Fold each of these.
Amino acid sequence: QVQLVESGGGVVQPGGSLRLSCAASGFTFTNYGIHWVRQTPVKGLEWVAFIRYDGSKQWYADSVKGRFTISRDNSQSTLYLQMNSLRAEDSAIYYCAKDGVAAALTYYFEYWGQGTLVTVSS
Amino acid sequence: DIQMTQSPSALSASVGDRVTITCRTSQSISSYLNWYQQKPGKAPKVLIYAVSNLQSGVPSRFSGSGSGTDFTLTINSLQPEDFATYYCQQSYTFGGGTKVEIK
C-alpha cells in the first residue's frame, strides 16, 4: 500500500533553517509528482510546493517562494523540503502528498503522509 | 486567485441524516474539484476527486456533484465514523472547512 512518511520537523528560531524529508513506498515514485501541503489552526490547509515526477520543474506558493526549495531523490524514493529564513507564520504541520495522476500536476492529493510539525519560535 | 467558500462552516446532525456541504468558487472552474475528510490528529483523506468521482475504498454514501461555480458534497445516511471536518479544494486553494458534529 502507498505510504508517505515525513520527518525532520522540530523547533527552530526565526531566520533559521530546517530540512523536511518524505520517504515514499508502495508506488512507482518516479512516475508521480509530489506536493508539500501545510496546515495551521488559523490559516487552515495551504499548498506549499510541487515537484514534477522527474524533478525537472518545481512550483511554489508565493508565501514561500525564494525561501523554500523542494527536491527529490528518485533513487531513494524520497522527497525533501529545504526551508530557509523561517518565520513564525511558517509554523505548521507539513504534509507530503502524492499527486493522483502520473506525470501530471493536477492538485489531486491522492495520498498523504501523517505530517511533521514545524514550530518557528525564539 | 480563485477563492473557495464553503458552507456551512459547521453543522450538527444525527446518525442516519443526509448531509449536504456546499463549495462556491469565485470563478467558474473546469478542472479537479476535490473533497477531503479530516479527523482530529490525522491527515486529510480524499473522498471525491474531479467533482464526482468516488475515491477507491470510500463508501458509496459519499457523493459529489456540481459545475461552474457551485459544488456539493452529499453524505447519505450519516454514520458515526463520518463525524469529521470536510474540505473542498481546487488547484492550490482549499476551502475553510465544514465541521460535522453529532447532534
Amino acid sequence: EIVLTQSPVTVSLSPGERATLSCRASRNINTNWLHWYQQRPGQAPRLLIYATSSRATGVPDRFSGSGSGTEFTLTIAGLEPEDFAVYYCQQYADSPPVFTFGPGTKVDV
Amino acid sequence: QITLKASGPTLVKPTQTLTVTCTFSGFSLTTFGVGVGWIRQPPGGALEWVAITHWDGDRRYNWSLQSRVTITQDTSKNQVVLTMTDMDPVDTATYYCARATWNRFDYWGRGNLVTVSS
C-alpha cells in the first residue's frame, strides 16, 4: 500500500506570499493518479488540481501542481485570504484499487 | 449543476449499524468512468476513503473496513447507500459522498456528521 506524507504539517504565511506544499509517496505514482484538494474550515473538500498539474474547473491560475515519481508539489503563487485552508494530496492505485489521502498541510495566516 | 448530499443519523450507539444515503443530481451513475464514493473525516482529522461504486456496478472497499461496509446504488433514484456495521466511537466522523471521475473526486456534497456514543 502506498503511503503519502505531506510537509510541512502547518505553514504560516501572509497574503501575497508564495506557498509551496509537498506530497511524498512511499513508491512511484502514475502522474495521472495524483490529485490535490482544498478544504476550507467547515466546508467539504474541493478538487483543486488533478493528474499532477491540471487545474479543476474554476480554479485560479495562481494554483499550480508539478512532480513525478514520488515527489509532488502544489504551489500557490500569491496567497489570497480565501486560500488559507488545509490541502490534501490523494493518489489512486489499481492493484488492488485503493484511494489514499495524505495527512494534509494547513496554510495558516 | 452537479450536487450531492449525504443524509442519515447524527447519533448512533456502539455496535449499531450506520446507514447513510447519498442523493445526487446533475449526472448519471451509468456514464462511463463515473463513480460515487464515500470518504470520511474524524473531527480535526484527515480524509479517509471508505468505498466506491462505479458506473458498471463494480464496488471497491477500503481493505481496513471491508468486513463491515457495504455500498449499494439505486440508479433509478440517483442514490448511493453506505452501510457500516458494528459502529464504534472511533467511527465518529463526517461522512462525505463525492462523484468520482475515473480516479479523482471532482464534486463533493456537504457531509453528514455521525457521532458514535452510548
